[in-house]
Specification:
Low-confidence stretches of chain A: none
Distance between the termini of chain A: 19 Å
Low-confidence stretches of chain B: none
Oligomer: heterodimer
Strand order of the largest sheet of chain B: 2-3-4
CATH superfamily of one domain in chain A: Divalent-metal-dependent TIM barrel enzymes
Radius of gyration of chain A: 18 Å
Number of helices of chain B: 12
Structural class of chain A: alpha/beta
Helix content of chain A: 25-40%
Mean pLDDT of chain A: 94
Distance between the termini of chain B: 58 Å
CATH topology of one domain in chain B: Outer Surface Protein A, domain 3
Shape of chain A: globular
Helix content of chain B: 40-55%
Shape of chain B: elongated
Strand content of chain B: 5-15%
Order of helices and strands of chain B: HHHHHHHHHEEEEHHHE
């Protein structure tokens, strides 16, 4: 599923950087990731800048809006606009989160965990297949951080994700930071966890920073990535043995563009080193 | 048909995030699961994972309330001073009015809720106008882009209609709500007309208009400039035409067209 032009470490396209990025073709970022819902139906100066960048540079799309595991009917108008947007950007796939975000039409604007139950597996497979049928590109599902299990679990998270990905025949956007954060909060070995998973379905990785609040570690996307998460990314890349694209997420406490570029280069060097070890060259 | 357990759990999570009664939830997160008659095992799950469940409440509320705090700083200052900002926000959450999955729609949803319910407007008659004025610039700045309108010309004639840019808004308030600050959030009661538009660079601009100019801009969209000027007793069209040319150059007016 990985397409040749999408390798290396990309960045999320963020509002404070739009002006600078739009005027800068040789930024060294191999691709951008953008949230379609932030652009569809928007307008004005920032919108025009973002569209100019997305029409110029390679783009992957990543949604926050669709309640994949929810029960609310699809917003067909939005899905039509999303399909047009995906074709315009020429993204090879579109990713959404393996979670629910709305209930009875009320949007919670947070990634809520699905119950780790057989019923939720069946429901989410049906929803993911239904969503895939409405999209013009393959759908990836991303594993989320979770801070509590919703209801009494019948399986663990790894089995839940595997069952949904296999049942829906969906690709996987593997967020290694989310795996790491979950391993801290629920006390497991992230490499053992990953070794159980269907890594052949991975098309893209996410990497990000997190922060500890009391007993709980939260996926904040607001700090630099720590070394153990970079090491987990490298371990995963070596295990995959192929140069899937990695997206460095930074959504809070967004630094100036130069600082973010330096952070990207740091992750890119780790990415290149991991792939060199497994015999891949990334040019 | 039996209601899905998955849906019941999702509804319980939504209630945990959005409902009032924070103290009771902190004391016993399982109470909500009991109220919603979840199974014993699911009640236990809510009860035994209290801190994790309440983290979701904190995170979701942060997502829902940050846009309100950012977009309505003066309204927040006014209501905080009166000790009712939290009450207002909770009433909004109770109404489950955030229906859009677009983050940028949260603040307009709040404005819509204020308009629909009249919340607080007995005590503060200017409340809705204040909220509207606070997001006016952003709404105009982010109005969806559209293709240029066909059949318009750049120079106005007395027999022309005015065609506004789709993002432009002419608004009329009973209070000078554009003059308030967080330190002084109560506006003067004074009729106020504003023109909010997007310039050629796509940036929002807000101008205060005289009542006559505001009326002309509204009326000349449906009757010719000459008819609108006559209705407003504007005998000299020269300054009117100059103003219209300026507003066209600045981007507020898309152009002019002959009536069909």
């Amino acid at each position: 599923m990985t397409q040749g032009r999408f390798t290396g470490v990309g960045l999320g396209l963020r509002r404070p950087h739009l002006e600078q990025v739009a005027g800068m073709e040789a930024h060294g970022v191999p691709f951008w990731e953008t949230c379609p819902e932030n652009l569809i139906g928007d307008g004005g100066r920032n919108h025009r800048l973002a569209c100019a960048i997305l029409d110029r540079d390679p783009v992957l799309t990543h949604g926050l809006a669709i309640s994949v595991g929810g029960f609310d009917p699809w917003d067909d108008e939005y899905l039509r606009d999303l399909g047009d947007f995906l074709l315009r950007t020429e993204t090879p796939w579109h990713s959404e989160h393996l979670c629910f975000t709305s209930v009875d039409g009320s949007s919670l604007h947070e990634l809520m965990p699905l119950p780790f139950t057989r019923e939720a597996v069946r429901h989410t497979i049906a929803r993911a297949r239904s969503l895939q049928a409405r999209l013009p590109v393959p759908l990836l599902l991303e594993n989320i951080t979770y801070y509590a299990e919703l209801g009494a679990a019948e399986m663990d998270e790894a089995d839940f994700i595997t069952a949904v990905l296999e049942g829906a025949d969906a690709g996987w956007l593997l967020d290694v930071n989310n795996v790491y954060v979950n391993s801290l909060n629920f006390g497991f070995d992230p490499k053992e966890w990953l070794a159980r998973m269907p890594l052949d379905r991975v098309a893209q990785l996410h990497i990000a920073g997190h922060k500890k609040f009391g007993e709980l570690t939260v996926d904040t996307h607001g700090t630099d990535v720590i070394d153990p998460v970079i090491e987990l990314m490298q371990w995963t890349l070596r295990r995959l043995g192929r140069p899937v694209p990695v997206l460095l997420e930074r959504d809070n406490h967004i630094p100036d563009f130069e600082a973010l570029l330096a952070e990207r280069v740091r992750i890119q060097q780790a990415y290149d080193a991991a792939l060199t070890l497994c015999g891949h060259r990334h040019d | 048909m039996t209601e899905s357990r998955t849906l019941r759990l999702q509804r319980a999570m939504a209630a945990l995030v959005l409902d009032a009664d924070e103290d009771a939830l902190v004391a016993d997160p399982g109470r909500l699961a009991r109220r919603l008659e979840l199974s014993g095992a699911d009640q236990g799950s809510f009860r035994d994972q209290g801190p994790g469940m309440l983290t979701y409440r904190e995170l979701a509320r942060m997502s829902l309330l940050e846009p309100l705090e950012e977009m309505f700083p003066v309204l927040k200052a006014l209501l905080e001073e009166a000790g009712v900002w939290s009450t207002c926000v909770q009433a909004f959450l109770d109404a489950r009015m955030v229906r859009s999955s677009h983050y940028r729609d949260i603040a307009p949803s709040f404005l819509g809720w204020l308009a629909a319910t009249g919340w607080g407007q007995d005590r503060w008659p200017f409340l809705l106008e204040l909220a509207h004025a606070e997001i006016l610039e952003v709404v105009v700045a982010r109005f969806p882009d559209s293709d240029p309108l066909d059949g318009l010309h750049a120079d106005p004639g007395s027999d022309d209609l005015v065609v506004m840019d789709p993002a432009t808004q002419v608004v009329s308030y009973a209070h000078a709500v554009h003059r308030v600050t967080e330190a002084s959030p109560v506006p003067e009661a004074r009729p106020t007309q504003l023109l909010a538009f997007r310039n050629a660079a796509g940036e929002a601009r807000v101008l205060e208009l005289t009542p006559a100019t505001a009326a002309l801009l509204v009326q000349a969209q449906t009757r010719t400039l000459a008819q609108a000027a006559e209705a407003l007793n504007l005998s000299d069209l020269v300054p009117v035409m100059n103003l219209l040319r300026d507003l066209h150059r600045d981007g507020a007016i898309a152009g002019f067209q002959s009536p069909t």
